[in-house]
Design brief:
With 376 residues, this protein is an alpha/beta fold. The chain has helices at 20-28, 47-52, 60-64, 77-82, 98-106, 128-147, 174-185, 199-205, 218-224, 236-252, 273-278, 328-343, 360-365, and strands spanning 2-5, 32-36, 56-58, 68-73, 88-92, 110-113, 155-157, 160-162, 166-170, 189-193, 209-210, 255-258, 284-287, 309-312, 315-318, 366-369, 372-373. The chain binds nicotinamide-adenine-dinucleotide (NAD).
C-alpha cells in the first residue's frame, strides 16, 4: 500500500506516527512510505533517516493523499479535505468526539482510533493509552522535581539533613504506577489513592502506601469494580470519604501527581481549592488530567489551567495536556510500534488492506467506514 506520514499540525504535537525503524519494516512488507518533510524532526527523526530506509519525502498533500494515512492526532478539516475517499486512517482519533468521527465518516474514510483497543493481553503491544501514559507518568515526576524548590531524597550531609519529599499520587492506572516507580527511584515517600481496590497490591509492591477508603455499601463495591479494567464514577458517599483521606495527605504533601480519569467522562475533582490552600508554599501539583475536568476546564484540580504552569496560593500547578509530546523521540518510538502491530491485524500477506469481521481489537477500534460512524 501507499502509506502517508503527515507532519502533525496540532499545537504542541511533536510526535510522529512512523519512525525510520517502523518505516523500514513497512518497506520490508512491500509498502511504499511517503513522509512529509520535517514530519519527524521534533521527535529526532530526520528526513535523511527516513530516506536512508527507502522512504520518499513529500509535502502535506502528498502524505494525506496516500491509501493508508498514519497519524498521531485526528486530521483537521483542511487535512481531511486532502484525503481520498476510501482511504484508511489510523491514529489517536478520539472515540468520544462524535463530531470528529462524523467528519471522518463523511470524508469516506475507514478510520481506526487506537485508544479504543480493549485492555487485553493480545492488544497490549498496540495499546497506545498505555505506551503514552507510561511516559507521561515518568515525565510528570521529573516536571514536579524541576519546579519543586527542594530535593526528593533524604540527604544526610555535614550541613544537616534534608527530609525526603512526600509525594501523593491520585489515580493509579498506567501513568500513576509509573509515577510511583519514578518518585520512588528519586527517593520520595509516596502515598497513592485509586477507586479500584485491586490497585492496592500494585501500589505496595512499588514501595508506596495505599490510601485506604473502605467500601461501605453494595453500590460502592459494585462501582469500584469498574468496567473492562477502567474506573466508573463512584457514588458521592465514597468520594466524600476519599476526599477526607486525600485532604489529609495533600496538606502534608510536597508534590501531588494526579492522573485520575474515567473514559468518556470529565476527570473527577480530587484536589479542591481548599486542599491547595492547605498545601505548603513551594509545593507542586502536576495535573495529568489537565483540560479534562468538568466542561473541559481544570483537571483533577479545578485550579489547573490547560497548558500553563500557574502559581495559586503559593502552589505551582502544572497543566501540561500533552506530556508524551515532551519526550517525543521515545513516545513516537513506542507509538509507532503500537501502530505497526495494529496494522498486522488489517493488512494481509500481499500488503493489502483487509477488514476482518471477527477480530475484537479491530472491531473496537473501527470508528468510521463506508460513510458511516461505526463506533461500537
Ligand atoms: P485511566 O487513565 O483511565 O485512569 C487512571 C486511573 O484513575 C485509573 O486507575 C482509575 O481507576 C483512576 N481513577 C478514576 N477515578 C478516580 C478517583 N475518583 N479517585 C482516584 N482514582 C481514580 O486508566 P489507565 O491507566 O488507562 O488504566 C485503566 C485500566 O486498564 C487499569 O486497570 C490498568 O491496569 C488496565 N490496563 C490493562 C492492560 C492489559 O491488560 N493489557 C493494559 C493497560 C492497562
Amino acid at each position: 500500500m501507499l502509506i502517508g506520514v503527515p507532519r502533525e499540525s496540532a499545537a504542541g504535537e511533536t510526535r510522529v506516527a512512523v519512525t525510520p525503524e517502523t518505516a523500514k519494516k513497512y518497506k520490508a512488507q512491500g509498502h511504499t512510505v511517503r513522509v512529509e518533510r520535517g514530519a519527524g524532526l521534533a521527535a529526532a527523526c530526520t528526513d535523511a533517516a527516513y530516506e536512508a530506509v527507502g522512504c520518499e519525502l513529500t509535502d502535506a498533500a502528498g502524505a494525506f493523499a496516500a491509501e493508508l494515512v498514519l497519524k498521531v492526532q485526528r486530521p483537521n478539516a483542511a487535512e481531511l479535505a486532502l484525503m481520498k475517499s476510501g482511504s484508511v486512517l489510523v491514529g489517536m482519533l478520539n472515540p468520544f468526539d462524535a463530531e470528529g468521527l462524523q467528519a471522518m465518516a463523511q470524508a469516506g474514510l475507514t478510520a481506526f482510533a487506537l485508544e479504543a483497543a480493549p485492555r487485553t493481553t493480545r492488544a497490549q503491544s498496540m495499546d497506545v493509552l498505555s505506551s503514552q501514559a507510561n511516559l507521561a507518568g515518568y515525565k510528570a515526576v521529573l516536571m514536579a522535581a524541576n519546579h519543586y524548590p527542594k530535593l526528593f531524597p533524604m540527604l544526610m550531609t555535614a550541613a544537616g539533613t534534608i527530609k525526603a519529599a512526600r509525594v501523593v499520587i491520585l489515580g493509579v492506572g498506567v501513568a500513576g504506577l509509573q509515577a510511583i516507580a519514578t518518585a520512588k527511584r528519586l527517593g520520595a515517600v509516596i502515598e497513592a489513592s485509586d477507586v479500584r481496590p485491586s490497585v492496592k497490591e500494585q501500589v505496595e509492591s512499588l514501595g508506596a502506601k495505599f490510601i485506604e477508603v473502605p467500601y461501605e455499601t453494595a453500590e460502592e463495591k459494585e462501582a469500584a469494580e469498574g468496567v473492562g479494567g477502567y474506573a466508573k464514577p463512584m457514588p458521592p458517599s465514597w468520594l466524600a470519604r476519599q476526599a477526607v483521606e486525600v485532604a489529609k495527605r495533600v496538606a502534608a504533601a510536597d508534590v501531588v501527581i494526579s492522573t485520575a480519569l474515567i473514559p468518556g467522562r470529565p476527570a473527577p475533582t480530587l484536589v479542591s481549592e481548599e486542599m491547595v490552600k492547605s498545601m505548603k508554599p513551594g509545593s507542586v501539583i502536576v495535573d495529568i488530567a489537565a483540560g479534562r475536568g468538568p466542561g473541559g476546564v481544570g483537571g483533577n484540580c479545578p485550579l489547573t489551567v490547560a497548558n500553563q504552569t500557574v502559581q495559586v496560593h503559593g502552589v505551582t500547578i502544572i497543566g501540561e495536556t500533552n506530556i508524551p509530546a515532551t519526550v517525543a523521540a521515545d513516545s513516537s518510538a513506542l507509538y509507532a510500534r503500537n501502530v505497526l502491530d495494529f496494522l498486522k491485524l488489517v493488512i494481509d500477506k500481499e500488503a493489502k488492506f483487509t477488514l476482518p469481521t471477527d477480530d475484537d481489537i479491530v472491531t473496537a477500534c473501527l470508528m468510521a467506514q463506508g460513510g458511516e460512524v461505526k463506533r461500537k
